[in-house]
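Deliverable D5.2: sample structural annotation.
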Amino acid sequence: YPNPFIDEVNFRFTSPATGFATLEIFDLMGRKMAVVFKGNVEANTEQTAQFSVPAYTARTMLVYRLTVGDKTISGKVLPQ
């Protein structure tokens, strides 16, 4: 949140399993912009991460990818 964003995106996630997690941000060309979170997570414990969007990409849709163990989810965040 917020989605759509202006200059910052906040992520909150809760994994159903304990494991190593990575939250990455990509531009629409598939280039990795940042690793927002990298570390161990405990099952059913909320994690938070914040991403300050660089000015040069503030008007571009971003793609995030969250991986915990062998499970991956992805989604999009839109500029305002």
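Annotation notes: The chain has no helices and six strands. The two ends are 12 Å apart (CA to CA).
The annotation will be released with the project's public dataset once the embargo ends.
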